[in-house]
Specification:
The chain has 622 residues and is α/β, with parallel strands linked by helices. Among the domains are: 227 residues, no CATH class; 129 residues, Transcription Regulator spoIIAA, CATH 3.30.750.210. Helices cover 36% and strands 14% of the residues.
């Protein structure tokens, strides 16, 4: 019988105690005396968010297939428990064993979004692990990071011993074998292990690299400090999606998670090439799972979980080539099991709407379009590949199919954006509202007024996208742009059908600094955490005044990272990583966007020579 890390009196006074007790259905429990390596996998946000993340479930399944490894989970304690743990000196613990994280061999932290960076320090702090990798001893866990934000690890590099660049299915076993062997033969020391680990493909050890700066603050050089350490870290890519590990028995949380359903990944990568989208670039090339494998996983996961809903996961589910056949299979399976199907990431066309009408209660659901930009000029700049005819035809089909609630997602602050582009956002929404009444002129047939929600986020340039050189704006300018949209919307004749929501501007600027920052930003993050910042992605806990103080006290100019368009010749903090996409391709796409405003075909229409043919897999070999 395991002992809980938290006593009953603590569990009774905190919100959602089920976040911390572990022992969920399908979680893995092993005899710790029988394993050679213990890995604590951390999602640095609250349990409900972390339990919804597919990547952790995949690697949790993969690691625990090994008899000599036990992978457990840990999430950021919510502020109510975090304060109690600090007051009572309770060490942060893993859910499965309830053992302190400090007793583990590895602490793996997945980096899904930049606004969780102070939560990384919260996890280290509560675990009793020194913030800086250079201050840790052989008795401390090795702290390893991975995930999308690892494509620019520099703003958090001092806090990590190593990073894994790419898809974890490839080289983790080699890393674990090295650690276990060095422990077994007595050759292990922290530095000796990291020195050998740095030679494994995809592994980046910040300690063995040095940055020099020019007088203007830009990077002069970035290079390894030891022999045989690679100067370029190459992204690891899983070339066979059918053989890739996947959880047929996903963990069932006690607390309702954000994604409270079976999630089935149908493919990885995207053919579309939107110039703002980091995921669409760094997960290239597009690779599909075979339909037989998907059918097998769908049945197994439904039987092993008891969930009443299944969702298909990908960046663009409509682009899965055997989607009609697979949907027919799912509908048949789910009808006999009384299970719902959700289909995110679909293009709004006749086929998709027909499918959704079969699997959704259309009276209750709303339909989501993501035009990203209001004007055709702006959609061409971002390479969205969506015309106004596509949008209006999709909306017309939706209205005829019974939908009357529509959500429209846009971005403000994109490169080359003008006032006319901003005003085009509510104009497009207004045109869709007009279309509703033109399509359904009979009041009795309509069944009520249409409801169109406009939502705008503010554009953040991300590494390894064609827009990585773009400038950002001060928070006041983002809010001004939102006000342009808002005022234009209120001037529209049918504005009572329209509503408008926009993103927090100050968190957008901070996200941009973290996304494209260098190692000098790390001291700002540390200062902010030690002065009370964490859970920055949650509006109720975001403290902009502390962040302003952190930049000022640390002598770091935030405008350096956001307010200037970067020169094409500048060394960028992430240039030492090779994702497979060539610098030449990104530069050419940047020029096609801001100078030519030209559209680049998707990967199935024509190969644009991005460089990913080197992986010899997926759409690149077909």
């Amino acid at each position: 019988m395991r002992q809980l890390a938290l006593t009953d009196d603590i569990l009774m006074q905190i919100e959602e105690p089920g976040r911390y007790i572990g022992n969920e259905i399908n979680s893995t429990v092993k005899d710790k005396s029988q394993v050679a390596l213990r890995f604590a996998f951390c999602f640095p946000d609250v349990y409900e968010i972390g339990m919804s993340h597919l990547g952790i479930q995949i690697l949790y399944e993969m690691f625990n297939r090994r008899s000599d490894v036990w992978c457990e989970r840990v999430y950021s304690p919510w502020p109510d428990l975090s304060e109690i743990m600090k007051e009572r000196n309770i060490p942060l613990f893993a859910l499965e064993s309830q053992d302190p994280i400090k007793d583990f061999d590895f602490l793996g932290i997945t980096l899904q979004y930049e606004m969780c960076y102070t939560n990384i320090l919260q996890v280290l702090d509560l675990s009793g692990i020194p913030f800086h990798a250079t201050e840790r001893t052989d008795d401390d866990p090795l702290v390893i990071g991975g995930g999308p934000c690892a494509y620019n690890p520099e703003p958090i590099a001092p806090f990590f011993d190593l990073f894994y660049i790419g898809e974890g299915e490839n080289e983790y076993n080699r890393l674990f074998d090295l650690y276990i062997q060095m422990k077994k033969d007595g050759s292990y020391s922290r530095r000796a292990f990291l020195r050998k680990a740095a030679e494994i493909p995809g592994i980046y050890v910040p300690e063995f690299y040095e940055t020099e700066y020019n007088t203007d603050g830009t990077i002069k050089s970035f290079h390894p400090t030891e022999e045989k350490i690679p100067s370029v870290i190459r992204r690891q890519v899983d070339t066979d999606m059918d053989d890739a590990p996947y959880p047929s028995k996903p963990i069932i949380p006690y607390v309702r998670a954000t994604q409270d359903r079976v999630v089935l990944e149908v493919m990885r990568g995207c053919i579309r090439g939107c110039r703002f989208c980091q995921a669409g670039m760094v997960y290239r090339p597009c690779r599909q799972k075979s339909i037989d494998v998907l059918k097998k996983y769908a049945v197994e996961m439904l039987e092993n979980t008891g969930y009443d809903e299944i969702s298909l996961s990908s960046l663009s589910t409509s682009d899965y080539e055997k989607l009609p056949e697979f949907i027919d299979f799912l509908i048949e399976e789910c009808e006999k099991r009384k299970i719902n199907i959700t289909l995110p990431s679909l293009r709004i066309d006749a086929f998709s709407l027909d499918v959704m009408s079969k699997v959704q209660d259309i009276k209750k659901s709303s339909l989501t379009f993501a035009p990203e930009a209001g004007s055709q000029r702006m959609r061409d700049v971002i390479n969205k590949g969506l015309t106004v005819d596509d949008i209006m035809n999709g909306a017309r089909e939706a209205f005829l199919g019974g939908w009357k609630k529509v959500k429209l997602y846009f971005m403000l602050g994109l490169p080359t954006e003008t006032e006319e582009d901003m005003e085009a956002i509510p104009d497009l929404a207004q045109d869709i509202a007009h279309l509703y009444y033109d399509t359904l002129p009979d009041k009795a047939t309509r069944g009520g007024r249409c409801q169109i929600t406009i939502s705008t986020s503010f554009f953040v340039p991300k590494p390894f996208t064609p827009f990585q050189w773009a400038r950002m704006y001060p928070p006041e300018e983002y809010l001004r742009r939102a006000s342009v949209v808002n005022h234009r919307m209120k001037d529209e004749p049918n504005h009572k059908c329209l509503s408008y929501q926009w993103h927090e501007a100050k968190t957008t600027v901070l996200e941009g600094i973290f996304a494209r920052g260098d190692r000098r930003v790390a001291r700002v993050i540390e200062y902010a955490y030690t002065h009370g910042c964490y859970f920055d992605a949650w509006n109720e806990y975001f403290k902009p005044e502390v962040w302003d103080e952190a930049f000022s006290t640390c002598g770091v100019d935030p405008d350096f990272y956001t307010m200037r368009e970067r020169d094409i010749s500048e060394i960028l903090p992430w240039d030492f990583i090779d994702t497979g996409i060539t610098r030449r391709f990104l530069e050419n796409e940047w020029k096609r966007a801001v100078t030519d405003q030209a559209v680049t075909p998707n990967c199935r229409e024509k190969c644009s020579g991005c460089g990913c043919t080197q992986f010899k897999t997926g759409v690149c070999v077909r």
